[in-house]
Amino acid sequence: PAKKKDIRDYNDADMARLLEQWEKDDDIEEGDLPEHRRPPAPIDFSKIDPGKPESILKLTKKGKTLMMFVTVSGNPTEKETEEITSLWQGGLFNANYDVQRFIVGSNRAIFMLRDGGYAWEIKDFLINQERCADVTLEGQVYPGKGAEESEKGKNKTKPEKAKKKKDADKKTGSIKEDNRATKQREDL
Questions:
Q1: 104: exposed, middle or buried (Cβ count in 10 Å: 0-12, 13-18, 19+)
Q2: Three-state DSSP state, 82
Q3: What is the pTM (predicted TM-score) of this model?
Q4: Would you say residue 95 lies in a domain?
């Protein structure tokens, strides 16, 4: 049996417990629940193409929030990055894609999607833009039209890229790198 406690003596934990008790019996619609409490959408395995692993990711990310990193080519200022990515966001908005944009460096931005099922369509749009150097989605780096010729090739995963860089750093004895999104790349 729980002790009777005076309401004036309640602390934050007691108030949170009380709120949970009240909400337990409420009929809250599925759309109003926070994302981590919603049941996952059922996956239709008939739509999965075994030749395309991206089709599995599309179906598993459907209805979930997803973020992708976009790099603007050249050496833009933060204001230029803001203007360019704003144009991209406007184009996506006109195509009925709900995308939020956050600038994280002088040439980097995060595009946040409410429904991750559309991420690969948005990625295809972005990599076809003239000033897009690359798009990072689910650990995969996809080079864009604005990428340098040396970077264009098959899409790479982050760990392989980092491993190659570490090996090159050991050989050349280069300066330690910091963990900034805006670090400048050195071509050797």
A1: middle
A2: helix
A3: 0.60
A4: yes
What burial class does residue 128 get, using C-beta atoms within 10 Å of its C-beta: 0-12 exposed, 13-18 middle, 19+ buried?
A: exposed
If we measure between CA atoms, which residue out of 177, 184, 154 comes closest to residue 74? 184
- The tokens describing 69, both together, are 């990193």
Amino acid 101: pLDDT: 94
Q: Is 60 exposed, middle or buried (0-12, 13-18, 19+ CB in 10 A)?
A: middle
Non-local (6+) Cβ contacts of 86 within 8 A are: 101
- What is the per-residue burial (b if ≥16 Cβ within 10 Å, else e) of 148-168? eeebeeeebeeeeeeeeeeee
17-69 tens-digit pLDDT: 888 888 776 666 766 767 766 776 666 667 677 777 676 676 667 778 889 99
DSSP class of residue 106 equals: S
Work out how many domains the chain is built from and give that number. 1
Residue range(s) defining the domain that contains residue 61: 54-139
At 174 the pLDDT is 47
Output the six-digit token pair for 13: 């934990």
Which of residues 160 and 106 earns the better pLDDT score? 106
Please identify which residue in the block is written with the tokens 């926070």: 34
Residue 7 lies in a domain: no
Residue 101 phi, psi (nearest 5): -125, 135
